[in-house]
Amino acid sequence: MRENNNFEEILTGRRSVRVYDEKVKISKQEMKQILEETVLAPSSVNMQPWRFVVVESDEAKEKLRPLVRFNTRQNDTSAAMILIFGDLECYVYGEEIYNQAFQAGKIPEQIKNEQLETIIPLYESLSKEEMSRIVAIDGSLAAMQLMLVARSYGYDTNPIGGFEHDKLAETFEMDKKRYLPVMILSIGKMKEPGFESVRLPIDKVAEWK
User: Which domains does the chain have, with CATH numbers?
Assistant: First the structure.
């Protein structure tokens, strides 16, 4: 159930959580709601390349544990570890996505056809490096959206980049040539407060021309 609709509190309430309350679990229904709001994030030409694996069982966490390096406390205590991948062949869903948009009355048929005729051949022609960049950006947008949505439901998260990238997909029976690991997010209820962080002043990181 959503607990927080105050956006300022959602942003300022974040901490770098390392230890969660092990008694807190998240039901599949609630996790689906969180992910349904997560995938409202934007993506390049709406190809939605994000793919999620929700690691919540003891067996699955045991498989993940050796891959998360110095992040084992999050793995052991969180309600779940959410693996975020980018699908390098996301364009195979292009026709389904644009047909759905047309049927929902969001775009006219001519635009749908023009988009598909342009986008699909373009994506098919991109190198793995170019596709990797696209899905990494889009996957990161989804990760940030997930963190904000989770906070609005009263849960804490921690983004994890320190893991065995080359082993993650294969360990969870995914095609490692197709699915690019982007990030892991731990999620649950904070047990031990993480340290609050500070930010550089805007004048240090932004300029006006």
Answer: 7-191 (3.40.109.10)
Using H for helix, E for strand and C for coil, what is the string for the chain? CCCCCCHHHHHHCCCCCCEECCCCCCCHHHHHHHHHHHCCCCCHHHCCCEEEEEECCHHHHHHHHHHCCCCHHHHHHCCEEEEEEEECCHHHHHHHHHHHHHHCCCCCHHHHHHHHHHHHHHHHHCCHHHHHHHHHHHHHHHHHHHHHHHHHCCCEEEEECCCCHHHHHHHCCCCCCCEEEEEEEEEECEEECCCCCCCCCHHHHCCCC
Is pTM beyond 0.90? Reply is yes
**pLDDT tens, N- to C-terminus, the chain (209 residues):** 666 666 565 555 556 789 999 999 999 999 999 999 999 999 999 999 999 999 999 999 999 999 998 999 999 999 999 999 999 999 999 999 999 999 999 999 999 999 999 999 999 999 999 999 999 999 999 999 999 999 999 999 999 999 999 999 999 999 999 999 999 999 999 998 777 888 999 999 999 99
